[in-house]
Amino acid sequence: MRNQIDNRCIKLGEYIVENASTVRATAKEFGVSKSTVHKDVSVRLKKLNPQLYKEVHEILEVNKQERHIRGGIATRKKYKGI
Predict the structure, then answer these.
(1) Rounded to an integer, what distance in angstroms lies between the CA atom of residue 73 and that of residue 7?
(2) Whole-angstrom distance, CA of residue 27 vs CA of residue 76
(3) For the segment 58-72, what is each residue's pLDDT rounded down to a tens digit?
(4) How far apart are CA 25 and CA 48, in angstroms?
(5) How far is the C-alpha of 12 from the C-alpha of 30, rounded, in Å?
(6) Quick check: 39 and 12 in contact, CB under 8 A?
(7) How far does CA 10 lie from the centroid of its chain?
(8) Does the structure show a pLDDT above 70 at 53?
(9) Coil, strand, or helix at residue 82?
């Protein structure tokens, strides 16, 4: 069981790095919750693969800085009917 979780953490991290993906998009792709993805890549991955953790952390920080822009774009699309 533990090995499955460790493998999932690494796969999630690699996916985020390869696709510059958000936590939400990654969760949808792998069929797990956002909480699971966040815990896997922010807590567990740090112990398993520190180098991959560092790369993932940088991408998540960029996503965090851009989220208000994405929210505005989504709201605009919602009310334009696109």
Answers:
(1) 35
(2) 24
(3) 999 998 887 778 888
(4) 22
(5) 8
(6) no
(7) 12
(8) yes
(9) coil
Question: Could you give the CA distance from residue 9 to residue 72 in angstroms, rounded to a whole number?
Answer: 31
Residue with tokens 């994405």: 70
| Predicted local confidence at residue 64, as pLDDT | 86
CA-CA distance, 82 to 62, in Å (whole number)?
26
- Enter the DSSP assignment of 1: -
Encoded tokens for 63:
């996503």
Which residue type occupies 14? Answer: E
d(CA 21, CA 59): 8
> Token pair for residue 33?
């919750």
Neighbour count for residue 12 (Cβ, 10 Å): 26
